[in-house]
Amino acid sequence: MRSIALFLVLLMLPACGDEGPQGNVKTIVLITLDTLRRDHVSAYAPDDLALPQPVTQALDDLAATGIRFDDARAPVPLTLPSHTTMLTGLPPAATGVRLNTYGRLAPPNERGFPMLQETLREAGWRTAAFVSADALNARYGLDQGFEVYDFEPSKDARRRETNLPERRGRETVGRALAHVKGIPASEKLFLFVHLFEPHAPYDTDGTYGGDVEDGSRIVGELLEGLAKLGRRDGAAILFTSDHGEALGELRERTHGFTLADGVLRVPFTLTAPGIEPDVRTDPAELADVAPTLAGLAGIPWQAVAGPGCGIDLLAGQAPTDRPRIAESLYGHHIHRWAQLTAASSEQGTLVDAGQDRLHWVPRAGHQLGIQSTGTVKDTPEIRRLAKVLAEYRQFEQPDLMQGGQVAAGYGGGGVVEGFLTPADNARLPDPHAAILTHYRLDGIKAQIVSQRIPRALRAARDAADALDQAHLLRESPELHFWRGEARVRLAKYDPEADVPKLFREAEKAFLRAFQLGRKDTQTLVRACGVNAGGREQECLDRLLELGRQVPQPGPQFAKLEARLRKALGR
Fold first, then answer.
1. Alpha carbons 34 and 302: distance in angstroms, whole number
2. Cα angle vertex 501, ends 496, 506, to 5°?
3. Class of domain 433-567
């Protein structure tokens, strides 16, 4: 496997000795509150704001007692790749982790770059992580370097619309504090705590702001608990989020598809002994987390020079013209829309959707979402940002990219496709124009999953078939999968249904979804098992042949293979 060192220029950032907080910190806490827009933290709101603002006292206190970075950005509006960037100091194209569904991050000698927790543990630090969403499950590899990596879904927490199990934040905090209590105060500790409260659908009072307030209260409970355990004074505490929430910006309701301020700008605060309260406006990004925290620990960090790569924010001000990059392959992965890359400056964000299909997204005011993109003018600034995007594409590490077996919903299953050529990308539907069709499909999916009334299921099937006629979703693996699911549900609940016909149609739809790229266990098993009666040999042969294209066939694969062989008398 190729090492990242072959592609990027490595720089060894020295530890800063005993000056300031660097090297004197014995407790480092990284707290992330998932899906938190910067402008929904009160500390970032202007004094004369007339709009309603969530109450975020704990987050405001962190901002007031340390450094508040006013312009921090995420590299991707998805949980797993964004946290991977935080812990490696590298952007998604360089880590190979581009979506929430991933195989497993390779060990250090194969991937060619370290993670923060590995570096700290080698230096004698105790390391522990407590996370709240399946997107950060240990199976994806972020557990490497942590002595304890804790996740167990709450029994009473419903699966969200993203199809990801979660753990309630107070349970995560309780588990984290119980673990910290057992570590002697004399030992150095790195603690990572991830909370999921603001993620859709919104539970507290049905609003995003309500979930933000609840998340802030839980952060406060964590900080109070650490203080009681003697781990708050003298600690370095970095608080941030993996990405924001669109809330209608560019017509996107949640996140994952577009690259505007609502999903990219995040709160970023840092408190540590010796750090005076300050507000910094120099450009920061989530890749800065690892080198900055390594510096606080007094440990040299192998930094990388290039777009989207992290720096130690305490070593000096970031250049004012530092461009920040972002990407979204999500729309391409589940719908075969164009891939998006973006580069942001002080003026706004240049978004590339393929060849000459460029968009300009200006800076949004506080809680004022941009509703449409602007025309791109040929200026020196635009040419500079376009050059940055071209350089970023060269960082791609195809050998590190893996696909996951978890299907559907938020992560998508199957092989992750790398950057297309600009010409090929330009031939695909632009997510900015297609985004509303995704939400139409979401509504149909909800009907298919929840309904048992034949009339309603027939209506959902017909609606899905009608979406197939629209050019924006005609090649969508996700759409074709749900066309198959609608027919499976009808065969189960409609007593007047022509079941053999429905199974034939479902098989065709699942195969189409697989061919278009939904190469995961769930789709494969549906395609080979839904219509296997009397055709067991044909379906077994297909299962074994197509199974070679699935990155990690799961237990469902083995069960279907055994059932087909049993039917054949083997």
1. 27
2. 110
3. mainly alpha
